[in-house]
From TrEMBL:
Organism, scientific name: Spirochaeta africana (strain ATCC 700263 / DSM 8902 / Z-7692)
One GO process term, biological-process aspect: thiamine diphosphate biosynthetic process
The enzyme's E.C. designation: 2.7.6.2
Protein name: Thiamine diphosphokinase
Record-linked InterPro entries: Thi_PPkinase, Thiamin_PyroPKinase_B1-bd, TPK, TPK_B1-bd_sf, TPK_catalytic, TPK_catalytic_sf
Thiamin pyrophosphokinase thiamin-binding domain: residues covered: 142-199
């Protein structure tokens, strides 16, 4: 099952969002993420959170929308609650949409989700995309595309790559290392994860 979770904050253009949602079996909105989904004309199956930022009354929501309300003082963020629900309902892939701009602590909070036991698989905001690589990252990006790589977790990270200007082979990654602004040299980039896991970040293409 594929689940898409809309969160608050800036998101990609509507066409990109709708393309991401084409394979979604379950769409969840975390609080004000509902407004993002509605703006992109994507139907929501579940609205979850403390509803402190959505700015809509009960009567303004669809009557058939499932809503799970939580107190504002809670142990998990609305995004964490949404991910938990997606996994509980059988989602094997979880995609986050939104989260661009806004408070720095919120951005770092989303990044920290990729360090968890059951992390999201990708995150798409107005500023680019971040994709979790646990076995292999393979993408047709076109030559000249900029991408960055960050090791995740406490285990040693070892990667191999094809199609990058600065190959990742033979590098011994430690927590805190980063491969910033690498460049694709051919159409398809492949990053193979031999141990550990990594986050591949792709900036939004201009134009």
């Amino acid at each position: 099952m594929h689940a898409v979770i809309f969160i608050g904050g800036e998101y990609p253009d509507t066409d990109s969002v709708q393309q991401i949602c084409q394979r979604a079996d379950l769409v969840i909105a975390a609080d004000s993420g509902y407004l993002n989904a509605r703006s992109c004309h994507v139907p929501v199956d579940l609205l979850i959170g403390d509803m402190d930022s959505i700015g809509l009354s009960e009567s303004e929501l669809p009557g058939d929308l499932e809503v799970q309300r939580f107190p504002r003082n809670k142990d998990f963020t609305d995004t964490e609650l949404a991910i938990q629900q997606a996994r509980k309902r059988g989602a094997e892939q979880v995609i986050l949409i939104g989260g661009g701009g806004g408070r720095l602590d919120h951005l770092l909070g989303i990044y920290s989700l990729f360090q968890r036991t059951h992390p999201p698989d990708s995150w798409h905001s107005s500023h680019g995309s971040a994709c979790l690589a646990t076995t292999e990252f393979r993408r047709r990006l076109g030559a000249g595309t900029v991408l960055s790589v960050f090791p995740l977790g406490n285990k040693p990270v070892k990667l191999r790559s094809t199609g990058l200007h600065w190959p990742l082979d033979s590098l011994h990654w430690e927590l805190g290392d980063a491969g910033i602004s690498n460049i694709s040299t051919i159409d398809e980039v492949v990053i193979t994860v031999e141990s550990g896991m990594a986050l591949v970040v792709l900036p939004t293409k201009e134009g």
